[in-house]
TrEMBL record:
Database matches in PANTHER family: PROTEIN TAKEOUT, PROTEIN TAKEOUT-LIKE PROTEIN
SMART domains assigned: JHBP
Organism for this UniProt entry: Glossina austeni
This protein's GO CC annotations: extracellular space
Protein name per the record: Uncharacterized protein
Gene3D superfamilies: Haemolymph juvenile hormone binding protein
């Protein structure tokens, strides 16, 4: 029962943040641009005027970053309602890569193999589905039902290179024919495949166990991180990390959620476990002393947390603005608990390899004491990033809106 409500809460939380994004009318899909779908295959039967067999491989879908959400319904607490998102892309969305085609379009034979570029011009996409609860091993999972992906382009541009073994006259004519009859051909083609791919994308976000798939924010880009430990600490160092990316968060699994209900004043907390390593990779500049050893260097670093539990908690405080109640975060706390920590600072001591290797060895052998000394700074620096992300979700709209239909 507890697990069940946790899962609903979690789905609610994910939906609330998505909804917040959608309501802001600008989902930033740049992480999905380009998208790299698996093989796409369309096999149209002889009862269709477009009787072809086409396989696209190594394709990219380019252009989704210009998507603007125009309408959202559903995504409330009730997962069984119909959910839909409509978005419009200004400009083209192109499927670009390799193709193999054979068959007939109307009475014309078509055959070829090479590069293709299919472009939907100013398309509108609607993603529609309803959720259904499915019980597995006593837990409730959300499954997508009645998934549909209607696509309405203003027009469509086909470009198949190397049709008919490179016969230019035949190939140019066929492309011309396809473009002149784009609408009829498109209507025949969409009866089939693209749904499958979008369904797989959504599946990662909405279905599953209690794993949140953070692959879209993996790597995460961290701003400059400055850790400055005072001289009263045995680890008296000054580290500045720049151009860093955080890798490995896509394996995150939520193990506990409390709060996040209608009562904003309750304590909200999330516990996330990340199996494997979470690595912070980038440039560092370091100087100071570790115990009695001087340390100094500048170069690339790889700081890896192993099998880590992250916990976040905060209280909600009502913040009234223009007669509406928003949630502000108070007493935000971020805890990091790794099973171990691996330091790799390249080019310590101006590249003196013996000194550098020894220092890395020393840091790793004493990781626990060093990490504990640095923990407060680390939690403060990273907590600030996480707090900002969560805070932004809730400052966009009055709190009650997250639970409205
Ligand atoms: C989208 O996010 C990327 C980084 O992920 C950023 O560079 C870009 O400016 C953002 N675009 C918009 C329109 O906010
Ligand atoms: C694909 O075709 C569209 C429309 O003709 C064009 O704007 C776009 O640049 C092409 N993309 C590539 C990668 O060739
Ligand atoms: C997360 O989603 C990506 C695609 O977006 C997929 O390749 C990966 O396997 C998923 N990871 C998990 C743990 O489900
Ligand atoms: C960073 O260090 C971890 C732990 O040693 C290692 O598994 C990972 O491959 C390293 N990453 C890179 C890019 O070197």
């Amino acid at each position: 029962m507890l697990a069940l409500s946790l899962k609903y809460l979690l789905i609610g939380l994910v939906c609330a943040s998505l909804k917040a994004e959608f309501r802001a009318n600008s989902i930033n899909l740049s992480q999905l641009d380009p998208l790299t779908p698996n093989k796409i295959r369309i096999s149209q039967g002889t009862d269709s005027p477009v009787n072809i067999n086409i396989v696209w491989t190594n394709n990219k879908i380019i252009g989704l970053s210009n998507a603007v959400v125009t309408k959202v319904t559903g995504f409330g607490e009730d997962l069984t309602k119909k959910h839909s998102i409509a978005f419009k892309v200004h400009g083209g969305v192109s499927l670009v890569g390799d193709y193999i085609v054979s068959g007939k379009i109307l009475i014309l034979p078509i055959q070829g193999e090479g590069k293709s570029n299919l472009t939907l011009v100013d398309p509108t996409f609607r993603i529609e589905f309803s959720g259904a609860a499915e019980e597995k091993n006593g837990d409730i999972y959300m499954k997508l039902r009645n998934f549909r992906l209607p696509i309405e382009p203003k027009s469509m541009i086909y470009k198949f290179d190397n049709l008919f073994n490179g016969d230019k006259a035949l190939g140019d004519n066929m492309n011309k024919f396809l473009n002149e009859n784009w609408k009829e051909i498109f209507n025949e083609l969409v009866k089939f495949s693209p749904n499958i791919h979008m369904r797989n994308i959504l599946r990662n976000d909405y279905i599953g166990d209690n794993s949140i798939n953070l692959s879209q924010v993996d790597p995460l880009i961290a701003n400059k991180i400055h850790i400055n430990q005072g001289s009263d600490s045995p680890v008296n160092i000054n580290v500045v990390l720049t151009n860093n990316k955080i890798y490995g968060t896509s394996n995150a699994v939520v193990t506990k959620v409390t709060g996040f209900g209608k009562d904003l004043a309750k304590k909200h907390s999330i516990t996330i476990r990340v199996p494997g390593g979470v690595s912070l990779l980038g440039d560092y500049v370091l100087s100071g002393k570790v115990l009695i050893l001087p340390i100094q260097g500048e170069g690339k670093s790889n700081l890896t947390l192993v099998n880590t539990v992250f916990s976040i908690d905060f209280a909600g405080v009502a913040d009234e603005k223009d007669g509406e109640v928003y949630m502000k975060l108070k007493n935000f706390r971020f805890h990091v608990d790794p099973q171990s920590f691996i330091f790799q600072f390249d080019n310590l001591f101006n590249g003196d390899k013996a000194l550098g290797d020894n220092m890395n060895k020393f840091l790793n052998e004493n990781w626990k004491e060093i990490f504990n000394e640095l923990r407060a700074s680390i939690e403060k620096e990273f907590g600030a990033v996480v707090e900002k992300v969560i805070g932004q979700v809730y400052t966009k709209y009055p709190y009650a809106k997250y639970f409205n239909e």
